[in-house]
Amino acid sequence: MIFTSVDVEALRYLRVKGAIEPEVERTLREHIGLGYQTELIYQHPDGWFNAFVDSNSTGSLWLTAYCLSVFSQAREFTTIDEDVLSAAANWLAGHQQPDGGWKPVGFVIHSELLGGLSGDYALTAFVALALDRYRGLAGSSLEQAKKYLETRLSDAKDGHSLAMGAFALVSLGSPVAGQALDRLESFALADSDRSQHWEPVPVETTAYAVLAFHSAGRTPAASAGAAWLAAQKNSRGGFGNTQDTVMALRALVEDALAATQQSDIEVTVERGGEVLHTLRVDRSNADVLQTFALTPGPDLSVSTRGKGTLAVQFAKLYHVPTESLRSRGGLELDVRYDRGRLAVGDAVGAEVRLAYRGERPQTGMALAEIGIPTGLRPDREALDRLVGRNRIQRVDVSRRSIAIYFDELVAGEPVTLPLSFIAAYPAQAAAAPSKAYDYYDPAIEAVDAGRPLVVGERDAELAFLRGDTNADGRVNLADVIGGLEALFTGQGPIACEDALDVNDDGGANIADPIALLFYLFAGGTPPPEPFPRLGADRTEDGLHCRPE
């Protein structure tokens, strides 16, 4: 659905500008039609939409309004069944409150639409905008919504609800739209580069403000907001999350369509007086993204000559190992396997622990992507049984990961999920990282680096990591304790005697945990190979490494 909205905005812009090529238009039209047909999978016969239509007894007011809005505009570019639109519009109208507003039903994209300081004002504005785009609903639903937004304008106590409300009031031709816009302007946060933005959820809120001001012909305020939006774009063309990207693109399209000045600018990039690149932006290529690679080095300088405005962005790309990533936003993820070495045909269990301890009462829709180590196959029947528990709405399996969809994760209510796998074929599996995140808020994210696993032929010697006595893929103090327990508490025999033979002298004894202690804490000699990576034992001795 998100991509359909982007395609609609792109096609609308290119057609208005008269800059579209037949092949590009045909491709965009095909994408819009495919997106429409795909989204119909998520519509219930009663007219509502939901991302998990098979497992919900009711629809999502937010998603139904969103689909109605996008499909209503897509009518210009592809065939849309009017019965689909009218069913969605009538379902929305059927949930309108006697006072003309709407209350949340089902999944809502983020907490700013759930009420809070502004009650149901923002959600009502959102639904009213969708119905206004549709313009096919009989009765007084839109008039009632307009009256609600007018009489409760004072309820919009934050920039987000006020921006949405102002845009809706302008779109509906309300006489109090000017009052709403004046208030919205007073909420603006000025930036040093003559741009301005609005809080909270700044990208989406600023996008609604830009749309509201452009719709009312207040170009200076709109352009200042659009300038701030343009500066927030990341190196891949997005704005942090899907909703922000769609709204920012929509606002920037409106700003570009409203622009009257033609750009004719020469841009020069220099380093230490040496000209590295020169490019020209004029009417012939203003819609084309121009990129070039720069070698690392001292600071760069950019100069321009000519007239018009443009955005210049530098992106520094680098790799961050998974084990160096940190969880953020209060979300925690821990994935633990009950075995580290196994043979083909063995079963292995994993426990997934998720906890949200952030500032909000709950996340939005959350997604956990659990990595599948090479050589293992998940028990699909056991995964299907997770649906309906712990707010899980759907589970999908791909070749490398298990995707678990949650309605939300509630603060202070940890979730523990059991997963089952079968060892399918021999492999020395590298760590399979996992992550969990709020689908619409990337600032809430957790990562788990995973652990390596070894799957061997039955009755065959397995690869191992010397010193890793507990087979968790790491060598640390826990392995010293595990080695001592195996040697002196009667909890042995250990499955991988070779791992316990830290000094590789062909025996497992007290010298091994002592050697490991010296390495870990006193700068002692590292264990012999295989270390620090998995491998085979090259020493002929009487020790073995078998499946656990």
Number of helices: 15
Sheet-strand content, in percent, reads: 15-25%
Number of domains: 4
Instruction: Please compute the radius of gyration using only Cα atoms.
Output: 29 Å
For this structure, the CATH topology of the largest domain is Glycosyltransferase
By CATH reckoning, the class of the largest domain would read Mainly Alpha
Largest sheet geometry: 5 strands, antiparallel
* Fraction in helix: 25-40%
Give the strand tally: 17
Strand order of the largest sheet: 11-12-9-15-16
Instruction: Provide the structure class.
Output: alpha+beta
Stretches with pLDDT under 50, minimum 5 residues: none
Identify the CATH architecture of the largest domain. Answer: Alpha/alpha barrel
Distance between the termini: 47 Å
Average pLDDT value?
Answer: 88
Overall form: globular
